[in-house]
Design brief:
Number of helices: 21
Shape: globular
Number of strands: 21
Helix content: 25-40%
Strand order of the largest sheet: 11-12-10-13-14-9-15
Structural class: alpha/beta
Largest sheet: 7 strands, parallel
Distance between the termini: 26 Å
Length: 682
């Protein structure tokens, strides 16, 4: 017998083809999808107020009798007001609708209704209720109780989703529990049917809180189980053994700088993995300028000196070219042959690169996603570095790994993230952290300013650029829109070119073709462009040591971690660098965020504050990892439940590694769907 939860949503009464298509736009295809479509909030319509107790500004529920029928008043073309008088035993109130002709025949004198809406005062000081939700007395479904409010877009209405959800819960009957009883009892987790009813239509807010705790725990438990199994598979895969790791000493001693303690610690962890006989899957996290590339270069050197090939994949062609230069500098005089492979190379150049890679002439291959194309065959790939992991995702990482026999994987990220988030995003990886900057690197001085400082900032730009340095100016928009007064890149670039005719002002944004973006970025790197106006496409970009000034327009519109990443584009040379934040928001959160940027250059501290102030939301674009978006868990607020879910996952895995027991069948099915329906269990 088919489980009712897996039936298509159009089996429900009232859900035809058109409505089903609307639900599908929200990712809802089955009854289970619908049940796990959680409310974003709830409205408390349970308290019924007397009209005499209502005040302007409140949103309330009242029980009324229609005193006079609905009157129609056409104010102007396209604007018709419908008005009626309603009363209870304490007083009367005017009820108003705008452009809603359907209400005219719904209210008859003497009829009783329950209304829910906002109270306002008209220009005569009389109370009105505007566009209320209304239900006939005795037939209330969504008034007089706590009502769910769902995250909607398009033509779906709250009433439609609420009604469909109510019907789905009724039709579904008793649901089979996913979480074993002993786990629920140990961690005090509510039973599924109680939780499902109260997450949508709670009896009170305490019941909702209990239900929410259950689904946060469930969501994080399933994710932890999936990640633990993936990590188990990774950690038990045979890896290529590097017999000689002492060879790196000769390279380290030849470097014109000394490695920091954090770099040495991370390198030791990497080399230990590579000589241990199992495949390495390790993430190296570190701020911009912490020396991740130097660590990767030494590890690549070890791979080549042990007779193997290594590959380094970057998210953009210009960054790949920069890595090529950097590695050639590191390996000068060692005999190591570094080859570049990118999509824009000419066919003849690509064929030559393919041959060198396939025959082993190329020791190290640096490139973009072109490296994982079918035409590329490696001679003996043993070590892979993926730069800026969040630009690739799990699938592309796996394709690159498939080019060799379980090559060691090193993922580098210049986006420091809080440990709570790292446990989710990188639960299938071992993590190394480079939390120490090289000695002598100057801190970027950061200032948050208002519009009244613009003339002074323009003078500061002129002073610095005239002295031979360069400046980035970052905007949140590409072009002007009628709906926004945010600074836009095109307008600002034109304006700055007029203000500074003696300088060359460049413009770069995401809608440009990659080739044009690369040409502009190369021009900036070569010093041909003195001021570069850009959107956030320069967040991950080229190393331009001569750029010492970063101006960010509408800084309040960016996350702290993104601001920190942008700031990391400057201060790479010997000169003092500056970051100016034009912030226009006046609220306390904006003020706190700008203060955080001005007082700290520590990416890990900033990311903690970002998560605290902004919530997980789009903090790090979890979908780009192949991981699901959190439906209900908040990774900052629910840190305690995250810890519980990890403990629970460890107990379950200890008892039943592959979730083959009957009591774990529901969990296994949920785990199998985690990575975009990729089955990750054995």
């Amino acid at each position: 017998m088919e489980d009712y939860r897996f039936k298509r949503i159009d089996c429900l009464a009232g859900v035809g083809e058109a409505r089903s298509a609307l639900f599908e736009k929200k990712g809802i295809k089955t009854i289970e999808d619908l049940l796990y479509f959680f409310p974003r909030t709830h409205e408390d319509r349970s308290e019924i107020k007397k009209i005499s107790d209502c005040a302007a500004g409140e949103t309330v529920c009242i029980c009324i009798t229609v005193f006079s029928p609905v009157r129609e008043n056409r104010i102007r073309k396209g604007m018709t007001v419908y008005n009626m008088t309603a009363c209870d035993d304490s007083g009367a109130i005017s009820v108003v609708w705008y452009n809603n002709r359907f209400v005219k025949n719904q209210f008859m004198t003497g009829d009783k209704f329950t209304l829910y809406g906002k109270i306002t005062a008209n220009n005569r000081g009389k109370l009105e209720m505007i566009n209320p939700i209304h239900e006939k007395a005795g037939k209330e479904r969504f008034t007089g109780k706590i009502v769910p409010i769902y995250p909607l877009t398009g033509s779906l209405t709250q009433k439609v989703v609420q009604g469909t959800m109510e019907l789905a819960l009724k039709e579904a009957g008793r649901l089979n529990e996913y979480i074993p009883d002993e786990i629920r009892e140990k961690f005090n987790i509510a039973e599924l049917n109680y939780a499902m009813k109260n997450i949508h239509f709670p009896d009170d807010f305490k019941s909702y809180s209990i239900a929410r705790q259950r689904f946060v725990f469930e969501e994080l438990l399933v994710l932890q189980l999936a990640l633990l199994n993936r990590k188990h598979e990774n950690s038990h895969a045979d890896g290529i053994v590097f017999e000689n790791t002492e060879c790196v000493r000769e390279l380290i001693e030849s470097l014109p700088f000394s490695l920091t303690g954090a770099q040495k610690r991370t390198l030791k962890e990497i080399l230990s993995d590579c000589s241990g006989g199992l495949q390495m899957n390790r993430l190296v996290q570190g701020d911009v300028g912490s020396g991740k590339t130097a660590v990767a270069a030494v590890a690549i050197y070890a791979a080549v000196k042990n007779g193997h090939q290594a590959a380094m994949m970057a998210p953009t062609e210009i960054l790949a070219s920069q890595h090529l230069e950097t590695l050639n500098d590191f390996f000068r005089g060692t005999g190591i042959n570094v080859v570049l492979l990118t999509g824009s190379m000419k066919a003849k150049e690509k064929r030559l690169a393919y041959d060198m890679i396939a025959t082993g002439v190329a020791d190290v291959i640096v490139g973009t996603h072109a490296i994982i194309q079918e035409q590329v065959t490696f001679f003996d790939l043993a070590f892979v570095v993926a730069d800026e992991q969040h630009r690739f995702g799990v699938e592309q990482r796996a394709k690159l790994a498939a080019k060799g026999h379980n090559p060691h994987m090193l993922i580098m990220s210049a986006t420091p993230i809080p440990r709570t988030l790292a446990l989710i995003l990188y639960g299938d990886l071992d993590i190394s952290i480079i939390d120490e900057l090289p000695p002598g690197r100057k801190t970027v001085k950061t200032y948050a300013v208002g519009e009244n400082m613009r003339k002074r900032i323009f003078a500061f730009i002129e002073k610095n650029v005239s002295a031979g340095t360069q400046a980035y100016i970052v905007c949140p928009l590409i072009e002007e829109t009628e709906k926004s007064d945010l600074q836009n890149a095109e307008d600002l670039a034109n304006r700055l070119q007029a203000i500074f005719p003696q300088f060359f002002v460049g413009l770069m944004h995401g809608k440009m073709k990659p080739k044009i973006k690369d040409e502009i970025m190369n021009g900036f790197a070569a010093g041909e462009i003195q001021i570069l106006v850009s959107t956030t496409v320069i967040e991950v970009g080229v190393n331009v040591p001569n750029a010492n000034l970063m101006i960010i327009e509408n800084a309040e519109r960016f996350g702290l971690s993104q601001l920190h990443q942008l700031r990391g584009r400057v201060g790479r040379g010997g000169d003092q660098a500056y970051c100016i934040l034009f912030a226009h928001g006046k609220n306390e959160v904006t003020k706190k965020r700008m203060e955080t940027m001005c007082m700290s250059n520590d990416g890990f501290y900033i990311s903690e504050q970002d998560l605290k102030l902004r919530g997980p939301g789009d903090f790090f674009g979890t979908r780009q990892h192949g991981l699901p978006e959190m439906k209900i868990a908040n990774l900052f607020e629910d840190a305690d439940i995250l810890k519980q879910s990890q403990d629970a996952a460890a107990l379950i895995i200890k008892e039943d590694r592959n979730l083959t027991l009957e009591k774990h069948r529901g969990l296994k099915r949920r785990c199998d769907k985690i990575f975009d329906n990729e089955v990750i269990m054995n």
